[in-house]
Amino acid sequence: MKRTIYIYHTNDLHSHFENWPKIAAFLKQQRKVHQQRNEKMFLFDIGDFVDRFHVITEATNGKANVELLNDLGYDAVTIGNNEGITLPYEHLNELYEKADFPVLVANLFKQNGERPEWAQPYCIIELSNTFKIGVIGLTVHFTKFYELLGWTIENPFDVLKEVLKELKPQTDFIILLSHLGIHEDEQIAERLTDIDLILGAHTHHLLPKGQYIRNTLLCGAGKYGEYIGVVKIEVDDETKTLDKTASVISVSELDGCSETEQKLASLYQQSEEKLGEIVVELPENLELNWFAPSRFPKLLAEALKEWCNGDIGMVNAGILLEPLYKGIVTKKDLHRICPHPINPCKVYLRGDELKEVILQAATERMKRLQIKGLGFRGKIMGQMVYEGVKFETEIMSDGLEHIHHIFINGESIDFKKTYAVATIDMFTFGQLYPEIRRAERKEYYMPEFLRDVLAWKLTNLYKT
Questions:
Q1: I want to staple 121 with a disulfide (CB 3.0 to 4.6 A). Which of 100, 106, 223, 348 is the partner?
Q2: Do 217 and 236 touch, CB atoms closer than 8 A?
């Protein structure tokens, strides 16, 4: 007997719900089509469906996202780093309480070594007595961040080897829901030949026709719900031979589901109301300029220095998207002007390393740099703003202003001294500031985001 199986997959939606009604309409229609053809259809999400930049996700702690997944009948999901390390422990622990699907994440544990009640390493889908599909979930192991939040995350390669030993004898086809990134997926396909299909995420890679490595088909559907991934599997039960092909569907020309649109509109209204809680009443405007001195980013630099107990505070002005005006400030306001899932951190730098950071931050290239990723949900870097740092400048022969003398808390910078720099975790990732990324000692403050630090600072500063 020959059978046809269709697998649809989404990944890295990051709460970009603008595409969700189109995705909903398409998947609902495809489910009807496959039922009429007597074909099996399965639907998986590969993580980072939740992103707290969106009002709905922020107000519901991601539970509205789970409700949306329930509506479309997902068969299983795994978690991404946005579910795993941007939600406090209790919120992640409660996120999937009403999920109608299994949450597969084989490498996440409580700190006592037990698996959380809401997660399982794999599931088995039995199509017939002769064909069973095993589905495994793995997420990227940001070890330090999970530890700070009260979890233990294990190396996915080590865990995967153990799970395969258990799962392989029970199944005929193995799918990995991988929120690890394309490079890790490629390594898995090279090393572990028992996996037939890897549905990928995290690095937002788009593989329009998939990618074969040995016998494993790798897939990825980009980001933000711009594409839906499709895998067609044709199985001959008698010979146990199969053929698998991958494609993606662009949602840009699809029609939307009006029912889903209405639901999202209702969720948005409810969420705005929930975030209407008053934080403080400002007696003055807090102005913002991304490229010149202004009060609001200076206040945030002060807050970071105090929150992290640093020698200095340092933050880019572009982290704030709008000024705050005199009058009532709500949680919704702070979320709007600071939507990033970015945490405070403290980095220890020698004076010579700090000097390099300050000089690099002062360049026009860095000020005008457009940032994507690293938790940043804004537009542009903006100038660096400090608390506890001053410098003298002069116009050089090139006609540009250059820093020639740096003072830390009123004293000339000591190149051999180590300074505790209170800043944002974004600078410890990627290649923005190599001196910060390479620093051996870093302390992260979690689960609070920058907007929480702002709320704390504003409340203390303007409390009546």
A1: 106
A2: no
Please name the amino acid found at residue 291.
F
**3-class secondary structure, 152:** strand
What was the pLDDT predicted at 137?
98
- Residue 28 CB neighbours (<10 A): 15
Identify the burial level of 31 via C-beta atoms within 10 angstroms of its C-beta, where 0-12 means exposed, 13-18 middle and 19 or more buried: middle
Mean pLDDT, the chain, whole residue set: 94
pLDDT tens for 318-359 read: 999 999 999 999 999 999 999 999 999 999 999 999 999 999
- Token pair, residue 319, equals 């982290």
CB environment 142-164: b (16+ within 10 A), e (fewer): eeebbebbebbbbebbebbeebb
Q: Write down the pLDDT at residue 392.
A: 81
| 95-123 pLDDT, tens digit each | 999 999 999 999 999 999 999 999 999 99
* Angle, in degrees to the nearest 10, between helices 156-167 and 182-191: 50
Fold classification of 276-462 is 5'-nucleotidase;  domain 2 (3.90.780)
- Tell me the domain boundaries of the chain: 2-271, 276-462
Give residues with Cβ within 8 angstroms of 36, minimum separation 6.
none
This model's pTM is above 0.85: yes
In Å, the largest CA–CA distance within the chain is 81
Q: Which two tokens stand for residue 126?
A: 């039995």
Q: If residue 384 lies in a helix (H) or strand (E), which one and from where to where?
A: strand 384-387
Q: Determine if residue 218 is left, alpha or beta; phi over 0 gives left, psi from -120 to 50 gives alpha, anything else beta.
A: beta
What distance in Å separates the CA atoms of residue 233 and residue 219, rounded to the nearest whole number?
A: 13
Residue 274 near residue 330, CB atoms below 8 Å: no
**Lookup: tokens for 13:** 């939606």
**Fold (CATH) for 2-271:** Purple Acid Phosphatase; chain A, domain 2 (3.60.21)
Which of 69-83, 154-168, 320-334, 393-407 shows the lowest mean pLDDT across its residues? 393-407
